[in-house]
Amino acid sequence: xxxxxxxxxxxxxxxxxxxxxxxxxxxxxxxxxxxxxxxxxxxxxxxxxxxxxxxxxxxxxxxxxxxxxxxxxxxxxxxxxxxxxxxxxxxxxxxxxxxxxxxxxxxxxxxxxxxxxxxxxxxxxxxxxxxxxxxxxxxxxxxxxxxxxxxxxxxxxxxxxxxxxxxxxxx
Length: 171
Ligand SMILES: CC(C)(COP(=O)(O)OP(=O)(O)OC[C@H]1O[C@@H](n2cnc3c(N)ncnc32)[C@H](O)[C@@H]1OP(=O)(O)O)[C@@H](O)C(=O)NCCC(=O)NCCS
Fold this sequence. Notes:
It is built from four helices and five strands.
């Protein structure tokens, strides 16, 4: 399988990327709602959202971020039918190349509770587990529909989520 990795294009890729993330992650939180995440990333204007195209459709994604101190990887996903063909690895390397060119000295990522086996995927790419506790805080004023006192995740349960990737306390 030789896919093409593109920088995300809003008109060409939005609908399929939303469907990919709904299928792979099935996040239920308002702050992880796919369209909200895409809109926020585009507003950041850093060009660090990438999609993999194969057979004329979007089959994978990776998002990166660099804040001048650390690079981060997020939303790495490959459609089930396209896994184990190297697409996930090539998406990570593609994002790494951009982060490296920006001067990033270290890349971090988080793995949700329940998805720990994916560590072996990342180890093959040179990542090591680090003894840290990950913490986070939502800024409710910046999450449409999330008001203080609403459900803990800020929204109703997701309709589906079949990847075994469960949502942890923060992402
Ligand atoms: C993780 C994921 C992106 C990997 O994509 P992929 O295209 O299948 O990955 P690759 O084909 O490049 O796999 C490279 C190697 O990692 C292994 N691997 C892939 N996914 C793995 C997983 N979930 N657990 C353990 N090993 C995995 C592959 O078997 C392969 O091993 P090999 O080199 O010995 O053959 C894909 O499984 C996925 O979308 N999972 C659900 C979402 C997810 O967990 N994302 C990561 C969030 S932190």
